[in-house]
Write a structure and sequence with these properties.
Number of strands: 31
Shape: globular
Number of helices: 2
Distance between the termini: 59 Å
Bound molecules: 2-acetamido-2-deoxy-beta-D-glucopyranose
Helix content: under 10%
CATH topology of the largest domain: Neuraminidase
Length: about 425
């Protein structure tokens, strides 16, 4: 063997060591094992936000949430996370980089509102300057587009990906002739099916049967809480209310809803006004006895395309499934339980890199009120790419933070001199 071969082997070893040291794969028990404090974290429990999607190509459940560090405080990053259909530890698909936990540019993820299975696109529910919006997020995007601006109403939303259309309700019931990625696309294809300005309509959930009947689910809090289901032809254009046909009423509060061509599934919240507990209730569309599939405290549900299994999350930060739905005794499977199987994986606080999380490359460190740092990338002109506090902007009070650093009226010049 000549010396070049030795050199090659030595380099190969160094390369492997670098790979092994790479943060995300390191097992840990405490933050200190992961590198420089306080920016190196040992991710433990997962705090799951509302919402669930299914990536059927890769057989994974998609959720959104924050991991706790070993100090048992949530880290400051929301991630799009996947869990295998067959169960196992969660993997981070990508961090959501738009969160800004304070200041005039405030932006915070509230959950997953929808999920496109054909393109694996999460629709994120986000609070922006205190106004909730819903829009697609692909990872690395600098903002979450406001396709829906949910102010003062509950957004019932259903994507019919097969027929490339979307149904939603705000104060009206709408059909959109596309799957909108922007508010302009939504407005361009928008038709009002039922006009709420002269007939009082709103809805919590929507579902489709046989491509031509839209089911509208309304939770009615008037006396005792009931959930009502009605149906309307999908082709309705400003129909009269008589086209909305009442189907059934259940004395429970639905917190989530999915349906197949044969059954409705209500994710029940425990209700103050009746004895109902939590769980998933299966109700045949054409009548017949309903039954409980589980009493778990369900938050969100997703039905697989074959209509054989429901995947769901619970208030206990669990991911579970129940099926086969056609069986007389569907069984619950546990996919992930945060408390029982902590992730124990090293991660760096937002923006930090390096095998010890030691580097804030071309960035400026901001400390949040709870003491955790963030490395904020700098723009070409030297400003941080976003800000929470005025001090981040240099020449205070001539400079100030407006989500991004800005100069007060009639002041110009560089931010850092
Ligand atoms: C994360 O930490 C918070 C604050 O200590 C705690 O309330 C929460 O239950 C923890 N979450 C998990 C999933 O362990
Ligand atoms: C829901 O159904 C009940 C029982 O049929 C009815 O009394 C109530 O008015 C309905 N609520 C709405 C909002 O349609
Ligand atoms: C729908 O029809 C009603 C009654 O004819 C009318 O008052 C209303 O303006 C119409 N709405 C739309 C959006 O066309
Ligand atoms: C609640 O449960 C109690 C005891 O199981 C029963 O007697 C009562 O009728 C129930 N009430 C309702 C509103 O279902
Ligand atoms: C800024 O400068 C313009 C032009 O000199 C002047 O008219 C205006 O009053 C100034 N504004 C303030 C807030 O001083």
């Amino acid at each position: 063997m000549n010396s070049y071969k030795y050199l090659f082997i030595i380099l190969l070893f160094k390369f492997l060591i670098v790979i092994i040291q790479c943060q995300p794969t390191i097992e840990c028990q405490g933050d200190y094992q992961c590198g420089v404090q306080p920016q190196a974290l040992c991710y433990k429990g997962l705090n799951i936000l509302p919402g669930i999607g299914l990536d059927e190509t890769n057989q994974r459940v998609v959720i959104v949430g924050k991991f706790n560090g070993s100090s048992n405080a949530p880290s400051n990053v929301n991630n799009v996370i996947t869990v295998p259909f067959g169960g196992g530890k969660p993997s981070i698909l990508f961090p959501i980089t738009t969160d800004l936990s304070g200041g005039p540019g405030y932006s915070m993820v509230l959950g997953l509102y929808g999920y496109l299975r054909q393109t694996n696109t999460p629709y994120i529910h986000n609070s922006q300057r205190a106004a909730p919006v819903v829009g697609p997020y692909h990872g690395g995007d600098t903002s979450i587009p406001n396709v829906w601006y949910i102010r003062g109403y509950n957004l019932g939303l259903y994507f019919d990906e097969v027929n490339k259309r979307t149904f939603y309700c705000d104060w009206n019931l709408h059909r959109v002739s596309n799957i909108p990625k922007t508010v302009d696309e939504k407005n361009a294809g928008d038709t009002i099916m039922l006009d709420g300005s002269y007939q009082n309509n709103r809805c919590n959930f929507l579902g489709l049967k046989d491509t031509n009947l839209l089911y509208v689910v309304q939770v009615d809090y008037a006396n005792t809480v009931v959930t009502n289901i009605s149906k309307i032809p999908v082709g309705c254009n400003n129909c009269s209310l008589s086209e909305l046909k009442f189907v059934l009423s259940v004395p429970v509060e639905a917190g989530s809803f999915v349906m197949s061509n044969t059954h409705f599934y209500l994710g029940m919240k425990p209700t103050w006004s009746s004895n109902t507990s939590s769980g998933i209730m299966q109700i045949p569309i054409n009548g017949g006895p309903s039954k409980m599939l589980t009493n778990d405290p369900v938050v969100s549900m997703a039905l697989d395309s074959a209509n054989t299994r429901i995947f769901y999350t619970t208030t206990n930060n669990e991911v579970k499934s129940v099926g086969p739905l056609g069986s007389s005794t569907p069984a619950v499977s546990v996919l992930y339980q945060s408390a029982a199987s902590p992730l124990n994986r090293c991660a760096c606080a937002p923006g930090f890199t390096g095998d010890q999380c030691q580097t804030c490359y071309n960035g400026k460190v901001r400390y949040l009120s709870n003491g955790t740092p963030q490395c904020v990338a700098l723009l070409a002109d030297g400003r941080p790419s976003n800000c929470i506090f005025d001090y981040e902007c240099g020449n205070v009070p001539m400079a100030y933070c407006d989500g991004i650093c800005a100069c007060r009226t009639n002041f110009t010049g560089s931010f850092y001199n």
